[in-house]
Design brief:
Blueprint lengths: L5 H16 L5 H31 L10 E2 L9 H4 L4 E2 L5 H4 L4 H17 L7 H6 L9 H25 L3 H13 L15 H11 L7 E3 L6 H17 L23 H8 L2 E5 L2 H13 L6 E4 L15 E2 L19
Parallel strand pairs: 3-4, 3-6, 4-5
Antiparallel strand pairs: 1-2
Helix pairs in contact: 1-7, 2-7, 2-12, 5-7, 9-10
Length: 339
């Protein structure tokens, strides 16, 4: 899709250039910081949409941006003492903080919005657990202001593209995120390689995962194989539900992230179907957010060395889709024996 939208590609290139010129030249570090900002933007938009939908249908909806937010470290204190640490949740919205002055915006995002993001799914969630050591390291107020402005422009182009070409906004957003991930093009210190998406699509086509299958990737990286399985299943559900206008993408595969036939029950089954593991904490966070960007609210991606003795989940999955690490080392005493 992006190959056919030079405006969108240009905006994404601008975003990368701003980070490089702003002092964040490591692609993995840059994409992690960009992902946090995309998350903040998308969280606000989804919340506003769900609020509007609820008002239209008369259903109840509890916004994440109503009331006061208290950081987790202060919640054990008496209510009276907690008040000094309260932050009005509306001020944590992207649409609110983006209007602040540069210095004030950076401080607000660093000390309020980002900690709120890390606490988003509650103390017990996998997302919160793996976000615990995440840091917001955008160093300059001007870089944050420019990044926020460019991301707003990217979302405007995505919305326009969605309306004019009839492609689901969520799919376009996924394409944008995939293009950002494509910047991680070289092997990392642990032998990380980003598997080309057309290879993932082909393998999903050959394996044909079905709703209800337990699917794992023991070296998941950014979650490409899990996403490939998810999109294949959702596309098949869309076809069965009679979805139209599903045309082959630039790789020749019919794929969508949104299905008319994705009932609440099917969605619940899918949520419990995908499992990923990686030994790089940054990649675990990127994998979690990649799947969440595509509509999987609580992905099961964990930090774990699946080649070690500590991994004892053999025969728990129906399908394993993976691009195993090419380099790296493991202690001989911790190595899992293979028969």
């Amino acid at each position: 899709m992006l190959q056919n939208n030079p405006e969108l590609k240009s905006k994404i290139d601008q975003l990368w250039n701003k980070f490089w010129s702003g002092g964040i030249s490591n692609p993995l570090t840059a994409i992690e910081q960009i992902t946090y900002l995309l998350f903040m933007k998308r969280l606000d938009e989804l919340d506003l949409k769900r609020q509007a939908d609820a008002e239209w249908t008369g259903e109840k909806y509890s916004s994440k941006f109503v009331g006061k937010w208290v950081p987790p470290e202060h919640r054990d204190k008496p209510k009276k003492e907690q008040k000094q640490f309260e932050t009005p949740r509306p001020s944590l919205r992207w649409s609110e903080f983006k209007h602040r002055q540069a210095e004030d915006m950076l401080q607000h995002v660093q000390t309020k919005v980002f900690p709120f993001l890390k606490d988003l799914n509650g103390a017990e969630s996998s997302f919160t657990h793996h976000m615990k050591n995440a840091v917001f390291i955008i160093p300059k107020p001007t870089l944050l202001v420019e990044a926020v402005k460019t991301i707003d422009e990217i979302f405007e182009v995505m919305e326009k593209d969605s309306q004019e070409k009839g492609q689901a906004f969520q799919d376009i957003q996924g394409d944008v995120y995939e293009m950002l991930l494509s910047e991680i093009a070289t092997a990392g210190k642990n032998g990380q390689f980003r598997t080309p998406r057309h290879i993932i699509k082909l393998i999903a086509e050959l394996v044909r995962p079905q709703l209800g299958h337990r699917i794992a990737d023991p070296a998941c990286g950014s979650g490409g194989f899990l996403l490939g399985a998810y999109q294949y299943i959702v596309t098949e559900l869309a076809k069965k539900a009679g979805a139209k206008n599903l045309t082959p993408d630039e790789d020749g595969f019919v794929r969508t992230s949104v299905a008319a036939g994705l009932t609440a029950k099917a969605q619940a089954v899918l949520q419990e179907s995908l499992y990923g593991y990686d030994i790089d904490a940054t990649m675990v966070r990127l994998g979690l957010m990649n799947l969440m960007m595509h509509g999987i609210d609580e992905p099961h991606i964990d930090y774990k060395d699946t080649l070690s003795k500590s991994y004892n989940q053999e025969a728990e999955y129906d399908i394993v889709m993976a691009n195993p690490p090419f380099t790296g080392s493991i202690d001989k005493g911790d190595r899992k024996s293979v028969v």
